Amino acid sequence: MAARTGKASLVGLIGQPVTHSLSPAIHEYWMAQHGIDGTYIPFRHAPGAMPELLRALRTLDLRGFNITVPYKSEMLAHLDSIDPEAKAVGAVNTVVVEKGRWHGLNTDGSGYLRHLQASTSKAQLQSCIQESLVLGGGGAARSIVAALMRGGAQHLTVCNRSYEKACALISHLQPLARGTRLSALPWERRQEAVPKAGLLVNTTSLGMEGHAPLELSLDAMPAGGIVSDIVYAPLETPLLAKARARGLTPVEGLGMLLGQAAEAFHAWFGVMPEVTPKLRAHVLAMREAA
Residues near 259 by Cβ (< 8 Å), separated by ≥ 6? Predict the structure, then answer.
């Protein structure tokens, strides 16, 4: 590991809260691996003090920073430029600072797609992604829908507990459709979409530790299908356990966190880091110790 000096590159995280974030462990692992003189700081701040924090960050010689909840959409108003897809999605999770100008990106979708590609074969993904079902309608769902459209989905159904929010998501992302047919489905009819879904993605909090499980049967899902959950606490949610028992391909959520972090690291330092079993073990150990 290169010694940290007064010339160290400074990156970090803003959000509320940030105290349990795994991002410092991820990024400083990669900095050490690549001999980068730098540090990653979770910028803690008082509730309601985001404007003051941003003014303070403008005075620092930053390489960039991440944004997490609840600021991913609010951050748009504070940027000098925004990547077109991030603008369409309506949220940023990464800022790159160049000559004092803040440029916003959204690496959630590209990081998710990277993880999906690494967790399946090319042939399986090309087949399954054609008919995709996304559960949820928040910021993560928007980013993932945009990525799946870019990845080749022919028909994509969004099902959310608020049908109006699912419809709004589709309307908002229609300009990015690139030939993908988008449709919305009321939550109480979610089971109807399972028999056609080659790829099922849960972006809701259902199944997360401390939350109710997702009530959904996978019995009618086509053989060879992919079931993905962006939750990573627990690593294997009840939904993924059901998928494994049915012989479907389960894709856990930690990889999305690592994938979006890799994309952000590359944007800051020009190096695309590897997501390895050793890194995963390191991050899981940090999560257990938190």
Answer: 107, 110, 111, 112, 113, 114, 115, 118, 275
Question: Residue 247 contacts by C-beta under 8 Å, 6 or more apart in sequence?
Answer: 223
How does residue 6 score in pLDDT terms, banded at 50, 70 and 90? confident
Active-site hit among 72, 87, 122, 165: 72
Beta bridge partners, 181, equal: 155
Q: Tell me the whole-structure pTM to 2 decimals.
A: 0.92
pLDDT at 242: 98
DSSP H or E run through 131: strand 131-135
CB 47 within 8 A of CB 14: no
Res 5: pLDDT: 85
Count H helices, E strands: the chain?
11, 12
72 catalytic per annotation: yes
Using CA atoms, how far apart are residues 228 and 244, in angstroms rounded to an integer? 11
Measured in residues, the chain has a length of 290
> Domains in the chain, ordered, with CATH?
9-106+256-289 (3.40.50.10860), 110-252 (3.40.50.720)
Provide the 8-state DSSP code for 120.
Answer: S
